[in-house]
Amino acid sequence: MTLVPLPILPSDTGRDADEAPAPGADPSARDRRSPGQDLHRRDRSLRDRSRGRRRTHIGVRAPLWFLFPALALYAFIVVLPTLRGGFFAFTDWNGIASTWQFVGVDNFFQVWDDRRARASVVNTVILAAIVTIVQNVIALGLALALNNTLKSRSALRVVFFAPVVLTPLVAGYIWSYLLAPNGAVNAFLDGVGLHALSHDWLGDPSTALLSVCAAVIWQFSGYAMVIYLAGLQAIPEEILEAATIDGAGSWRRFVSVILPLLNGAILINVMLSLIGSLKQFDQVMAMTGGGPGTATETISTAILKNAFSSGDYPVSIALAVVMTVLIAVLAGVQYRLTARKVN
Amino acid sequence: MNIYTWRSGLREAGTVAVAILFLIPLFALVNMAIKPANSATTAFQIDPNVTFANFATAWTQGALGPALVNSFIVAIVTVAGSVVLSALASYPLARFTRRWSRWTYYLFIGGLLIPTQLGLLPLYTTMRDLGLLGSLASIILIGIGGQLPFSVFLYTTFMREMPQDYEEAALIDGCGPVRAFISVVFPLLKAVTGTVVILDAVGIWNDFFTPLLFLSGSGNATAPVAIYNFHGQFHTQWPLIFAALCITVLPILVLYFLLQKYIIRGFAGGLKG
How far is A275 from chain B (nearest CA, A)? Predict the structure, then answer.
């Protein structure tokens, strides 16, 4: 099983798919073909070569119109609105009036001036950083533990993954109850004599964002774990045995052998948790609604509030551009960092 | 590495302890829902007076029935639409090796990186102008469009690795390309179709942002929106809220525990080449 960062960096398998034999195909199948078929094949490949790159299909011609329904819907739902959104960020478009004017980067200054908008950008970056790091450390730890001979291995995998399929809004409500002033976490702390630690977790601006992070990490660690497990299972046993024979201890094996070989899984996981947490909306709406004050406001909640509570479309749409740029820059930096390690 | 020693036992005990920590919120979810409304016990304690009255109250007070029906309609239509459109589109994308087909493929894949938030307000005004705001049709269309990048990615990478001998045989036997796709190619895509169905279904069922925005003000709601409204209405009556939460996540959790092997494999397999 190979793990490659295809969502972000699609490999070019299509280019040479026609030259390489299909995976799983019996290599001797060709020999069993009748001479006439072989002749026909050679004839065709000669003709193809003479046309060089202009050969556009292999064997069966796939009907081109198959592409059109998806392309039309995709253009209507994703491509055009996205382009319009990027464009309107530099205008004073308010969503209702049919006229608008260019205002340059004025909207971005407004984002900077707007207390909620600015806080949302800062909070989102903090949340993304904490979630990405902690979630991946936990997930990798769990995956390493489950990659061993544990009797309860498959049951544990089911348990750790269960929160992933739970509705994020519901997960947020469960946690908001557990973390309430008279909720279960405080009751537990009181019960074991740690009353000093009990706290209004979501009401205190200094712990509210961290509490949201905890809920997100709880929910999605299982997802990252499953991807790490797949990566671990692709590491050949012989390599680990060779490292052991060469005198590597378990820590040394982890740092010098396992981690480099997990690079693909790390890239995917960090990318997924970065993108996911930069868009974070559901848990925040369930747990705090962005409060207290602006302590847990994220870009997504600020976009919704600015557009539909304050009717401030320009700031809202400029925030969406900020989010897109953040995702692109962080994903790019992260890709560079991880990709270099591969070489 | 394959021998079960006392160290493995220790490791197992530690991992089980973490798993119990992971399960606590889920335990609290069920435990709270079956308590009497005035119970003095905490979420970790079991109240001996188990009651199912909360479920009945939540069901009648929260309009959960219509919301669940809406969620089912949206999930089924969206998943079906996404499977049909992306399987069709991926066929020429995988079989043609020209430059335009690669760029069209990249156009779809690009949707994985671009946040939907950027196109949200223009899309909102478009839906408003078309009179689709508040209708299930709007979130179904948005759902299919939003799932296309990942589904097209899965289908295309899978189809590129698929041998073409079967299609060629079908062609020689006198099948047209459309017929060959329906009777030969699509059945061969069963594994990847399973992954697409599971990923789409979980994503659509759980989506809150899109229906919140596009259904607001209409009588329509999906399960998460109904939960959001319900919480706003009964925000301190936790047993009632937890009963409502249980009702709305029950379909997805039942599905998960029945098909967990395939669901976990689908989520992990979605990312391998």
Answer: 8
